[in-house]
Amino acid sequence: AIVDFNQVLQINPNLAEAYGSRGLIRNQMGDKQGALADFEKAAQLFQQQGDLASYQQTQQYIRQLQPFR
Question: Residue 32: in which H helix or E strand, if any?
Answer without folding.
Answer: helix 32-49
